[in-house]
Amino acid sequence: MVFYELEQEKLRYSDLFQRIEGITKKMLTETLRQLERDGLVHRHVYDTVPPAVDYSLTSLGLTLIEPMRVLHRWTDAHYDSVLESRKKFDHAQGHQDNQPKT
Asked: Is residue 81 part of a domain?
């Protein structure tokens, strides 16, 4: 989701947090740090008081947009089949529906 939000414009942390439904601040922070570490997201700190920070995709990050769209379309098309396969596998393994899956 971070990729889709940053595709068109650079955003501040608070904007990303508001736009990505269901994400915790901790998860967003960890995700942004990992993406920055991987060279996919650029973190720009402005020399202001208080400091302002925004995030944008790097040129490397931009190359992932289309592959992620393809994966998203595949997931939409095949999600029910994947869930059905999981049920069949779990049933064959003797798992109950309410047991945690590892």
From this structure: yes
CATH number where 17 lies: 1.10.10.10
Distance of CA 9 to the CA centre of its chain: 16
Q: Distance (Å, rounded) from C-alpha 101 to C-alpha 93?
A: 11
Nearest to 20 by CA among 6, 35, 39, 41: 6
Q: Output the six-digit token pair for 75.
A: 């997931």
Q: Which domain holds residue 23?
A: 2-92
CA 85 – CA 50 distance, rounded (Å): 52
The phi, psi pair for 24, rounded to 5°, reads -90, 160
Report pTM.
0.76
Sign of the torsion angle spanned by Cα atoms 22, 65, 40, 44? negative
For residue 53, what pLDDT band results from cuts at 50, 70 and 90? very high
